[in-house]
Amino acid sequence: MQTKSKSSNLETLLELAKKQGAQQAEVIQMSWTENPVNFENNKLKALESNESSGIFARVIKNNKIGSSSTTDPQATEKVIKDAIESSDFGPDATFKFSDKKLENKEVDFNKPDLPLEELVEKGTKAIEYLRTFHKDILISGGFNLGFGETAYLNSNGVHSIRRKTIYSTSLYALLVRGEDFLGIYDGNSSLERFPDEKEMSRKIFEKLTFAQENTNLTTKKYPVIFTPHAVSGIFGYILSVLLNGKVIQQKISPLHDKLNKQLFDKKLTFIEDPQAGTRKAEFDDEGIKTNQKVLIKEGIINNFYFDLSSASKTNNSLFSSTGNGFKPSLGSPSSPSLTSVQIESGKRNSKDIIKNIKEGVIVDQLLGAGQSNTLAGEFSVGIDLGYKILNGNIQGRIKNCMVSGNIFEVLKNVCEISSDREWVGGSELYPYFMFENLTVAGK
Predict the structure, then answer these.
(1) CATH value at residue 192
(2) Would you call 406 helix, strand, or coil by DSSP?
(3) What is the pTM of this model?
């Protein structure tokens, strides 16, 4: 009954948009609830649930686009009026709303229960375990249960609802020794269950052990291994920007004219899979069906990703929306955005790769990853957490070091991609990368 009520409400808003002169209109109703169980500095914090909901409307009137949003449940009709009025000063409409029907599955959705006492106990035990490493260590993090839905309807009769529950677990260990600050983070999300806090605690304890001793590093070229978190922060991030339909449409991405060209190592295959991970979505926020796409295939630029606007302005409309028009927030317009992504795995396990390195570096946590000249493919980042490898063994933590390069150069020669992969943030599935000669600046 609740779903029918929402659909009726959205249909009423569409009718109102038509009466006020809109040739086309779309409305989106979003709701989201979060239930955090947080710990801070070894202690349980106050537990507060957060709820948000609202409606967004976008209209095309006199070939102009107008939009508006509201979180006030009593002002839903006003959102249409404001969208109509804003169209007088809006951008030209270079596209039409989708008329391709979406599959509508009847899916039961019951709000999940928060196992509060169980989570408090799990968090407390994780803190107790990590404090055995050092009495002064401070642990923060916890659990979060989020759930909600997005209902979409447009004037072409395209409609559907997607619902999602996301379980998140995170832990952060901070150890201060004089002027030495050591912070180690691990966290993940899942659509099925809370990620295992025991495994996260074990990984953090292992990293704390590796980082007990600081070691000096001479500036020179080393074999460098990037963990999945570091792969995400540098290579996943930069590739996502360069393949984005908006920068392709504006021709400010170096890849805009490189479709079907071999630019990278044949070991590199970069895929978007909207049916996996926490960003799973059957349709985007413009009512267009999502689909799996191979963005880079064995080093060849194979696909870009678009929303309606960027696709309509690219190469005289040779491209169409790829179902990647998502809203970063309720009041923001849709823009090209990836769902869950992955990089295909290689042949050898990361531990075996490390064992065969005489002298090298592992890069795990980064500082300033988003401050490089991304559109040029450049990266220059501080190593927040990294280790020195000597004769196949991890010898200690490196401090005050930086790693830099250009992906158009380094990704041409990827020495190895590991067979083991890890989820990063629940929406990126990445392996370890190894490069034979990469400059690491040390002090």
Answers:
(1) 3.30.2290.10
(2) strand
(3) 0.94
How many beta carbons lie within 10 A of that of residue 385, not counting itself?
Answer: 23
Do 70 and 183 sit in the same domain of this protein?
A: yes
Range of the domain at 15: 2-204
Residue 223 and residue 170 share a domain = no
198 and 226 fall within a common domain: no
Domain count, the chain: 2
Q: How far apart are CA 193 and CA 211, in angstroms?
A: 31
Query: Residue 44: CB partners within 8 Å, gap ≥ 6?
Result: 37, 38, 120, 123, 124
- pLDDT tens by residue, 261-276: 999 999 999 999 999 9
Q: Tell me the one-letter amino acid at 5.
A: S
Token reading at 75 = 């002002």
SS3 label, residue 426: coil
Mark whether 172 and 280 lie in a shared domain. no
What is the longest distance spanned by two Cα atoms in the chain?
75
| Residue 233 shares a structural domain with residue 178 | no
Helix (H) or strand (E) holding 118: helix 116-130
Q: What pLDDT, in 10s, does the model give residues 329-362? A: 998 989 999 999 999 999 999 999 999 999 999 9
How far apart CA 352 and CA 435 sit, in angstroms, is: 15
Q: Between 116-130 and 197-210, two packed helices, what is the crossing angle to 10 degrees?
A: 20
Look up residue 101 and give its DSSP letter. Answer: P
